Structures are given as structure tokens and as C-alpha cells.
Amino acid sequence: MIEIKNKNTGNLILSLSADTLSGADLHEIDLTEADLSNADLRHADLSHSDLSHANLESAQLQHANLIGTQLAYAKLDHADLSEARLSDGTPFSGAILMEARLHHAKLISADLRYADLHQADLSYADLTKAFLQGANLHQANLRCTHLCGAMFVDADLSASDLRESNLCDAHLNSANLMNANLSEAFLSGDKNSKPATLIRANLTRAILLNARLNHVVLKEANLYHADLRNTDLSHALLGGAHLRRANVEGTNFAGVELAAVIMDFANFSKAKNADIPSYKINLR
Fold this sequence. Notes:
Layout: E1 2-5, E2 12-16
């Protein structure tokens, strides 16, 4: 017999005549404030259930069905959601993880398309190859998060904290990174992965102080008023990118073709290795 109790009152929420919750059918059940810390919920069906404010710290949720599940304010620190399904890939099907705690959680290859993760704490989490197309990560904490190979196409990462995160081979095409902080983030490739792609990404007023962006693809990206001080942009692809009024003091432009880059009113006087075409005007 398994008993699920309220984390605050200890009152019984649900009892099941089973030895484990692994593979259990718990869909569309009210589990608000449930204590499921350290629970084995692998392959469990929790779709459309209400787990808001629940304690799922260190829970095993690999391959779990969490499509449409309410997880707002839930505590999922150190939980393992690898390959869990939190969306069926259609709008409005994503799980709600508003202000959820996922500190040090594992979400490797998890399906988070269209999930609501705004203001969620994902610091130090592992989202390697996670699917986050169309996800809402506004003001999310992604500091020191491993995001290599993650799919962020059309995702909202505005005002998010991505400091020191690893975004190698991440796909951020058309993502909204307005006012995001990517200071010291790693977006370059290495011997095992490719550089990130940010085609048509919105990086308006983003902070990229000391970020590693060498070889990244930033074609048609909007870097208006972005802070690129001391950023390594060597050999990056910037065709059609907007750097109007960007701060490029100490930025390394070695091997970067600037002919098709909009550079109006950007201060290139202290940029490094910038081969500026003679016809460029309105530079400072």
C-alpha cells in the first residue's frame, strides 16, 4: 500500500494498493501540495494532474507522462526527468512549471515544447538535447545550466539569466533573448559539438560580457544596444546582423565578415581585429 500525503499537513491525499508508483496511472488527479519527494515515478502517467506546490525533490520521473500537468511552484530540485514528456508538441499542451524549482534537475532529452517555465529556477540543471521550442522561459534562472544541443527555436528567453551556461550546439533560431544575461556563457563548439545557431534571434539589449561566441551563427540576429564587451566573436557568421549602438569594446572580430552587418552608431574604436569596410559610416 502506498499513501500520498500532503507535505504540509500530513493529511492523506491518495492511497494505492501497489508496491511502487513506477508506471502508475495518476492522470487528472488533484495532487496539490503532495509529498512525492524521492518517489519512483518512472513511466508514470501524471498527465493533466495538478501537482502545483508539490514536493518532488529527488523524484525519479524518467519517461513520465507530464503532458498538460500543473507543476507551478513545485519543488523538483535534483529530480530526474530525463526523456519525460511534458508536451505533445502542440500549443497549450505543455506542462505549467511557473516559478518551479528545478535546481540541479536532470531533463536530458525531455520534451518541454510550449511548456511554461517563466521565472523557474533551472540553475545547474542538465537540459542536454532537451526540446524547448516555443517554451516560455521569461525571467527563468538558467545560470550554469548545461544546454548543449537543446532546441530553443521560437522560445521566449527574454530577461532570463544564462550566465556561465553551456549552449554549445544549441538551436536558438528566432528565439527571444531580449534583455537576457549571457555573461561568460559558452556558445562555441568543441571537438564533440558544434557552435550554437542564433539565426534571426532577438538579442536586443542582451548582456554578453566575456561570452564565447566564436564560430557561432548569428545571421540576421538583432543585437541592437547589446553589451558585447570582451566577447569572442572570432569567425562568427554575422551576415545581415544588426549591431546598431552595440557596445563592442574589446570584442574580438577576427575572421568576421562585416560587409553585410549593420553597424550604425556602434563604437568600434576599441574593438579587436575588426576589418571594417571603408564605406561603412556612422561609426563611433
